[in-house]
Design goal:
By secondary structure, the protein is mainly beta.
Length: 66
């Protein structure tokens, strides 16, 4: 992300969708916190994020693709 190593990511409130391949191949990403407004996570949004081990999701019913 702009040349900065990101290991923990907090998606801000107001974001309702994460598009396909948005964080694909962010191999050092370890944790993601999703906002309560999230409605959809596109295919392979986190594909290749092999270090990702913590995903904090709200209790909403977001549509999650592959």
């Amino acid at each position: 992300m702009n040349g900065t190593l990101v290991t923990d990511l907090i998606i801000p409130e107001g974001v309702t969708a994460i598009k396909s391949y948005a964080f694909s191949e962010c191999s050092k990403l370890k944790a993601v916190a999703l906002p309560k407004d999230i409605e959809e996570i596109g295919p392979y949004a986190f594909g290749g994020c092999f270090s990702l081990c913590v995903v904090k999701m709200p209790s909403s019913r977001a549509k999650i693709d592959e």
